[in-house]
Design goal:
The complex is a heterodimer of chains A (496) and B (233). Chain A is of the alpha+beta class. Chain A has a domain at 288-459: nitrate reductase domain like (nitrate reductase domain fold, Orthogonal Bundle), CATH 1.10.3650.10. Chain A is built from 20 helices and 15 strands. In chain A, the strands form seven sheets. A three-stranded mixed β-sheet of chain A has the order 12-1-13. Chain A has a two-stranded antiparallel ribbon with strand order 2-7. In chain A, a hairpin with a 4-residue loop joins strand 10 and strand 11 (240-243). The longest helix of chain A is centred in the C-terminal third of the chain and has 21 residues, at 401-421. The relative contact order of chain A is 0.15. With 233 residues, chain B is an all-alpha fold. Chain B has a single domain, classed as Fumarate Reductase Cytochrome B subunit (Up-down Bundle), CATH 1.20.950. Chain B contains nine helices and one strand. The longest helix of chain B has 31 residues, at 2-32. The chains are: A alpha+beta (496), B mainly alpha (233). At the A-B interface, helix 3 and strand 8 of A face helix 2, helix 5 and strand 1 of B.
Chain lengths: 496, 233
């Protein structure tokens, strides 16, 4: 057993209101520089929809993630032989057209325009060329199903749905969508790291955050093609790739990452998980339908004395183990089993988990009056407006089992709480629903508490990062006088 | 007078550019390793990139490899060329790759001119480099067409000249009588080497060699001094 700790995340999709506050918080801190304007390390997508960059889930086009061949895992995008052959032109790399051309507006015209018959207009100006431009696409042009015939109909997750289900999905009065906020998943088996010809990408041993060494990056852009979630980005100005850093400077000082901290719907949870690193290859090679369960199995019980002993042996500090015991992510993923990894069939073993969304409550209509009958209030999962197959394609590698379990449990918790607080559902019905969902009343209370009443401290259980023990701290501080911190301090200058 | 110019260009210049090349590349790597790449613009323009970059690189690599082979094993080249049919095959192949390189360099320049986005990431040093490369490849193709059987006389004259440079005893007699186009080709090559550290050419030095044998996953440890910076799975 090779125990390592990983800062992991849960996004509760039922609570996401699609306000993009997370995206803005991230952009203001990290990606407001030249070359990064088009990057959204955090973005919020509407599902069904094509997302950002467009149709990123289509791995036949972008060749992201891992593939199983001859029993061994290999990168879908770049086998080592092909990396050499394609070294002068990366065949599967998205270009700026697949994201969007960033722009600002010529606001000065509103003030400086000479007097005339027309109202002055602020025209869009490209943030790349500085020229006037026509806006053709933006990072969230399909927000709330905007332009659905173009966008939502092309969602790769609609695969396996019959035409009737597809039509239903977009029929007026049955229309349904949910939000899908995304950041880097800080995977256990990251294909971006494996693909880098320069070895510039790495996973931090202590907390599992995946970073790009800006000094070693040589602009091969293999990571951009290899990441199936398209969460590494190429900075065209510095010639370096960049990605979500999980706000590690904030985490190291005990603060939640900016997107977590600013989340209006309080959908985000962060905590540390202990896992067995020996199992990475084996778990990532399992058949599609076993992947979710296999990943859960490699996440270790932080209360188990054997695990604690092995963790201590690997140098994991006691207070990190304590935090792993308090981790909300552990509850959602391992104990309650209601949070699922996105697209685990890409085999990167993402460490960001999603609580799948319940469909909207369906009203019934009688004689032109809409009534919310309690028997119908929390409808059967199979009658939900989002076809189960669609959610399964997103969160279950196409298999419904684990997803159905998560949804049934959520539904049971709702019935149970409704019976207690409103009382229009009888206690027997609620109890039966809990039994069917394999959920005790105590567990239901806990789920309810962490979902609805959770405080800041309960959502973000940030482990001590022990930066004071980091190797740089052992260096002579006088050697670093007149420099800013311990990293490299020269500006990201190109010129040549 | 001509003699002194030959001395300057073929006996002094090569050593001057080698000093600049060595000091320049080392100093740039020390002071500005951040910019040691080709600053890829494929992200900004994807379609023309393929049709320009792939033939250019394969073309110029083949041509350079040809020069290198003639420099390293001149006797074998002369033996190969002793049969006219084999000589023609070699000459035609070399010329074809030269022309591919020339045409695709045109495509590279055209792309930089026509794509507004790519133009933004094109520096003055880039344009200067394209000028040098254009002169180099154009004179090369010219020589291949108008001074034929270069594969043979390169092995017989240019190779001993280059070896004399390495032996620090430059014998400019080998090249002094060469046609003007050949001389231009040689001198321009020295200039390219001299400007190497100050252009995007440095990307040649950072080809990804460790990738082919490193383990897929890279983990860096902060706390454990024994494991710091170690590449392991």
């Amino acid at each position: 057993m090779d125990v390592r700790s990983q800062v992991s995340m849960v996004f509760h999709l039922d609570k996401c209101i699609g306000c993009h506050t997370c995206s803005i918080a991230c952009k203001n801190i990290w990606t407001d520089r030249q070359g990064t304007e088009y990057m959204w390390w955090n973005n919020v997508e509407t599902k069904p929809g094509t997302g950002y960059p467009t149709i990123w889930e289509d791995q036949e086009r972008y060749k992201g993630g891992w593939e199983k061949g001859n029993g061994k895992l290999h990168l879908k995008s770049t086998s080592k032989a092909r990396v050499v052959a394609n070294i002068f032109h990366n065949p599967h790399m998205p270009s700026m057209d697949d994201y969007y051309e960033p722009w600002t507006y010529d606001y000065q015209t509103l003030f400086n325009a000479p007097e005339g018959n027309d109202q002055p207009v602020a025209r869009p100006v490209s943030r790349v060329t500085g020229e006037y431009m026509e806006i053709e696409a933006g990072p969230n042009f399909d927000d709330d199903l905007g332009g659905s015939p173009i966008y939502a109909m092309n969602d790769p997750n609609l695969e396996g749905l019959n035409s009737e289900q597809r039509e239903q999905l977009f029929a007026v009065e049955r229309l349904v969508f949910f939000y899908f906020p995304r950041i880097c998943n800080h995977c256990l088996n990251p294909s971006c790291v494996a693909s880098c010809p320069s070895g510039a990408l790495y996973k931090r041993g202590e907390d599992g955050i995946v970073l790009i060494d800006q000094k070693r990056c040589r602009a091969w852009r293999s990571c951009v093609a290899a990441c199936p979630y398209k969460k590494t980005f190429y900075n065209w100005h510095t010639g370096k790739s960049e990605k979500c850093i999980l706000c590690y400077p904030r985490l190291e000082t005990g603060q939640a990452p900016a997107c977590f901290h600013s989340c209006v719907g309080r959908i985000r949870y962060l905590g540390v998980l202990l896992y067995d690193a020996e199992l990475i290859d084996e778990v990532a090679s399992r058949p599609d339908d076993e992947l979710v369960e296999a990943q859960r199995q490699m996440i270790l019980d932080p209360f188990d004395v054997k695990v604690i002993a092995a963790a201590r042996k690997n140098g994991i500090p006691d207070d990190v183990i304590t935090h792993a015991q308090m981790s909300p992510v552990y509850q959602f993923v391992k104990v309650w089993k209601i949070a699922l990894p996105p697209h685990i069939e890409y085999r990167t073993l993402p460490m960001l988990f999603y609580v799948p969304p319940m469909s909207p409550v369906m009203a019934s209509r009688e004689n032109d009056t809409i009534s919310h009958l309690s028997t119908d209030l929390f409808h059967d999962i199979d009658e939900s407006r989002v076809p189960m197959q669609f959610l399964a394609n997103l969160f279950g590698a196409g298999h419904e089992g684990k997803l159905r379990y998560a949804l049934y449990k959520q539904r049971a918790v709702r019935l149970y709480r409704r019976a207690i607080t409103v009382g229009d559902i009888d206690v027997e019905t609620a109890a039966r629903a809990l039994r069917e969902a394999n959920c005790s009343p105590e567990e239901a209370d806990e789920i309810y508490r962490l979902t609805s009443l959770c405080t800041f401290e309960e959502r973000f259980v940030i482990p001590p990062m022990h930066r004071e023990e980091a190797i740089q701290m052992l260096e002579d501080p006088h050697g670093h006088r007149q420099s800013v911190g311990f990293g490299f301090t020269a500006g990201p200058r190109r010129g040549l | 007078m001509i003699h002194y110019l030959d001395q300057l260009l073929f006996a002094a210049l090569p050593y001057a550019v080698m000093v600049v090349f060595l000091l320049g590349t080392i100093q740039r790597y020390r002071a500005q390793s951040f910019s040691y790449s080709s600053l890829s613009s494929q992200f900004l323009e994807n379609r023309q990139h393929f049709w320009a970059m792939v033939p250019f690189h394969y073309g110029i690599l083949t041509v350079l490899a040809g020069h290198l082979v003639a420099f390293l094993i001149p006797r074998q080249i002369l033996w190969w060329n002793s049969k006219p049919a084999r000589l023609y095959v070699l000459e035609v192949t070399a010329l074809a790759f030269g022309i591919i390189t020339l045409v695709s360099l045109g495509a590279v320049v055209l792309r930089r001119l026509t794509s507004a986005k790519v133009n933004v990431v094109t520096s003055k040093a880039d344009w200067f480099l394209y000028l040098l490369l254009f002169v180099q490849i154009l004179t090369g193709v010219y020589v291949a067409v108008f001074n034929p059987w270069g594969s043979s006389w390169f092995a017989a004259s240019a190779t001993p000249y280059l070896w004399s440079l390495i032996k620090l005893n430059p014998q400019i007699g080998y090249v002094a009588a060469m046609p003007l186009a050949v001389k231009l080709h040689i001198v321009n090559a020295f200039i390219v080497v001299g400007f190497f550290p100050f252009t995007r050419l440095v990307h040649i030095l950072v080809v990804p060699n460790p990738y082919l044998w490193r383990r897929p996953q890279v983990v860096r440890w902060n706390r454990d001094p024994r494991r710091t910076g170690a590449i392991e799975s």
